Amino acid sequence: MQSPSRKPFSLLLALMLLPLAFTACDSTEPDEGPGEEELITKITLTLSAGGSTVTASANDPDGDGSGFEIDTINLASGTTYTGSIALSDEINGEDITEEVGEEAAEHQFFYTVGGQASNRVSVTITDKDENGLPVGLEFTLAVSGGGATNGTLRVILSHFDDDPKNGTDQSDETDVDVTFPIAVQ
Amino acid sequence: MMKSIWSACTIRLMLLLLLPSSVAWSQQLTGRVLDGEYQPLHGVHVFVPTLMQGAATDSEGYYTLDGLPQDTLTVEYRFVGFATVVRSVPIDNERMVLDVMLEPEELELEEIITIAEGASAELNRATMSVSRLEPEDLEKLRGQNLAETLTHLAGVTALTTGPSIAKPVIRGMHSQRVLVLNAGVSQEGQQWGGEHAPEIDPFAPVRIEVVRGAAGVEYGVGAIGGVIRLEPRELPVSPRLAGSVSMNGFSNNRQAAGSVLLESGIRALPGLGWRVQGSFRKAGASKAPNYVIGNSGFNELNGSLALGYKGDNFALRSYYSLFSTELGLFKGAHIGNADDLQRALRRGQPSVQYEFLYDIEAPKQTVRHDLFTLSGHYDLDSGDRIEAQFGLQRNRRQEFDAHRRYGDPVNDPAFDLTLATQTLDVKLRSIPRGSFFGVLGVSGMNQGNVNVEAGYLIPNFRALTGGTYARATWVGQSLTVEAGARLDHRWLKAYPRMNRRGDYARTTHAYTNLSGVLGTIWQFSNSWSVALNLGTAWRPPGVNELYNFGVHHGTAQFEVGNSDIGGERSYNVDMTLRHVGENSRVEISAFNNRMDGYIHLFPENEARVTIRGTFPSFRYEQTDAVLRGLDGVVEYSFLGVLELRAQGSVVRGDDRSAGMPLIFMPADRLTLGAAVSLPNLGKIHSSEIELESTFVRRQMRYPKGVDYAEPPKGYSLFNLGYRVEIASGTSVIQLGLSVQNLLNTVYRDYLSRFRYFVDAPGRNVVLRLRLPIG
After folding, report:
1. Which residue among A41, A119, B326, B661 is the one 20 to 30 A from B183 at the CA level?
2. Spatial distance between the Cα atoms of B11 and B112, rounded to a whole number of angstroms
3. Which of B335, B493, B610 is opposite residue A63, by nearest beta carbon?
């Protein structure tokens, strides 16, 4: 077999080796900053009745349950509160309430009262989306008269993407699911 | 003409030549072997398999076989770089003369112990369990992804995440326990999860081989559960432009797939060859028998370039391949928390009637894998060969979540990782000295992972791995013994996130360990052999196993890494019975794989309560496990017209410490096939009708109370296929029509991660067409 002449051969070799020129041993040191991730870290319920205001928060500072804290909601017997809920991402300093409001037709809150207080406390959603279905950023919370009791208020935010929102059923995409303790004085 | 090129097959042949003939016959066969241009070929192996007798041609191309019986003998003429010629010769005179012409072959074979040819070589193939997909098998399966293709081999199943993602499972093991060797280098993609499929072009012009179980010492630290080897075909040497066009259509997801391949040698520079190949696959949503699996389509675009030069005593080859895909994930599997999953399970089917669409929406993945290899060998004056291989890979994986609060879900990935890997392997292969030959090698790898956006699926890391190994083989008359050892060291520096505010820790780990293999093959008759392989292999923990932290979408499972875990070690015993007869073929393996420090996800006592709800929590832990099983294939051909095949696999995985079964082990399966060859009709030949049925049992062995749902019921599937070759001038057009899941059976497989939500795809009519070029 004849030997190839030198020139095309070295050209060929250069061509074969070309990709090596793009090799670099890059640093794997992480960049500064947390980056943007979809996260809700804090939920605040604000309940107002006759000039007095009750607030209660659920705070999950890393969004993964480490250091998760939930306040007890202290309610007065025989009172009807006007309520609102606020969601925020404390890490990125973003208010998520606004976004849920803008995409109201794709979101719905579900408020469920549990424990002994379930006979005494009821929640009614007062705001509606463009299709006339409940949203739940605004609601009324009514406590009937009686003695002291306690229970729980479970707040679920369903995200409707492919699942159609019908005002009654939850979706399979839960953005928020927290259970506040309730104490009725 | 050329320096003698030796192979495992050749070595055996050479050794066989030394064997004394026990009975003396007096007939002689002689002749001359020439190439296409009437030039004599020196060193061609002329071999009579039934007699285990052979000879080599001299520098003028002449050969002589003495002492032959009066019989009709099958004689094989083999030469590397040329198509093997098999002739049936009636030996009735004292001296028969047979001249043979060999044509250059474009599918040249590498001389690797596990890739050999011929009945004897088949029987002496490997001390491990090895299955191979021949080009004609591959042709039948063209257009499907790697895992789907490999499930046609005994012992291989697929772990799927919807219709668009499948990864191969070998004897119950997958992901980081299975090494994919692509063009000689270990494919380094983001193989952290079950939903990360290997980045392989299904049309790549390769031979595929699967080593089941710990795979000896040559492949490195990942090969604890098996190796999938994709060996590119040799480059052509003849200056004739050749190639092919393949076109596939799949009815179920209305998939179109195609590939073009062109290759040639160059007249001005003999020894130089090139190949260009490109392929695409475009699929819409798949359909289960009762509904569309929404957003399960994919778009794939792949290509490769190869350029090589083969000199007298050296060869150099460069290979570049690109794999790129965009794939959708079934939307109904994108759930919030554990309650959502329970709701979906109770419903048993998607909540929405999806329409068929080609469009891919979030959640989706885009992956791009670039692989470049430069490899070569040099033959020393002693005849020993030095081989070297350099590999450069870059894997970019972007995962798009269904929603994105601060951007557009379609354009802003939730995770964006780039894994860059450089590998270098150098080995010395010896020529036989006495009955011994061996390999000595060193290998090194430098790997870095960077999160492009500071997401947190896998932390940034740098890993340096180095290893050295030696393997020796002794070939006797009917016995082959091999032994090998390997030492590896891995150093890992990782940057796990400490909190969501951008604080990262910096940790380092170092692991050093030994692997070893001892194997033997005993060919106890002309057509039977038994192989025994004892191997111990080792794997350091993966970065995900050390540092994962967060919710796995689709399974609503909170996964926590464990930076204290060490490596896992396997002690594998594997026995394989092989038979290659005139009308039959058998390969059955039994294995017992003891794994110490087996790394798995273990449920934590307390669920994790977050603002999004409650998630069952799992932490990576180590235990002692054992995987046992049986797999194999039996084939029988009646008069070359009817071919029957039975193939099955059984795996039993147990947690020895906890005394309970391991989770997600493949269910027992049996495939029965019958193929009928139809008579040739003018230009129509090689036509064949094949019916295949696969029976999968329900998995009855699983840890109770860990999974959300019980393993699904067993199922049986039927496939029907027709294939034909149509001669057109000097070339051959291949056409295939098949129906998969013929009865449109509704089923769910235990190893489908989406079995909680949807049924598997239904009936699929597949059309395959392959046209030659040149």
Report:
1. B326
2. 11
3. B610
**How far apart are alpha carbons B282 and B360 in whole angstroms?**
11
For B194-203, the pLDDT digits (tens) are: 788 889 998 8
Distance CA B507, CA B493 (A): 6
The two three-digit tokens of residue B509, written as one number:
């780990």
Distance CA B340, CA B342 (A): 5
ipTM exceeding cut-off 0.85 for this assembly: no
Which chain A residues are Cβ-neighbours of B501 within 8 angstroms? 34, 91
DSSP B312: S
From B49-53, B165-169, B225-229, B360-364, the region with the lowest mean pLDDT? B49-53
Report the C-alpha gap between A135 and A127 in whole angstroms. Answer: 6
CB–CB of B456 and A37 under 8 A?
Answer: yes
Residue the block writes with tokens 């004689």: B75
Candidates B13, B243, B7; CA nearest to B109 is B7
Residues from chain A that touch B344, judged by Cβ atoms under 8 A, are: 172
Q: What is the DSSP string of B461-518?
A: EEEEEEEEEEEEEEE-SSEEEEEEEEEEEEEEEEE-BSSTTS-B--EEEEEEEEEEEE
C-alpha B746/C-alpha B741 separation (Å) is 9
DSSP string, B512-572: EEEEEEEEEEE--SSSEEEEEEEEEEEEPPPHHHHH-EEEETTTTEEEE--TT---EEEEE
Q: Are strands B557-560 and B617-638 parallel, antiparallel or unpaired?
A: parallel
A68 touches chain B (CB under 8 A): yes
pLDDT per residue as tens digits for the range B651-709: 999 999 999 999 999 999 999 999 999 988 888 888 999 999 999 999 999 998 888 88
Joined tokens for residue B486: 């390997």
Give the DSSP letter of residue B253.
T
- DSSP H helices, B109-178, are 118-123, 135-141, 146-150
Q: Do B610 and A65 touch (CB under 8 A)?
A: yes
Give the H or E element holding residue B10. helix B8-17
Contact of B734 with B769, CB cutoff 8 Å: yes
Of A147-156, B205-214, B251-260, which gets the smallest average pLDDT? B205-214
Q: Is A107 on the interface with B (CB under 8 A)?
A: no
Chain B interface includes A161 (CB < 8 A): yes
Q: Does A10 touch chain B (CB under 8 A)?
A: no
How far apart (Å, rounded) are the C-alpha atoms in residues B359 and B285?
Answer: 8
The C-alpha atoms of residue A155 and residue A153 are separated, in whole angstroms, by: 6
Token representation of residue B440? 């000595």
SS3 B349: coil
According to DSSP, the residues that pair with B115 across neighbouring strands are: B112
pLDDT at residue A140 greater than cutoff 90: yes
> Which of B71, B55, B53 is closest to B120 using CA atoms?
B53
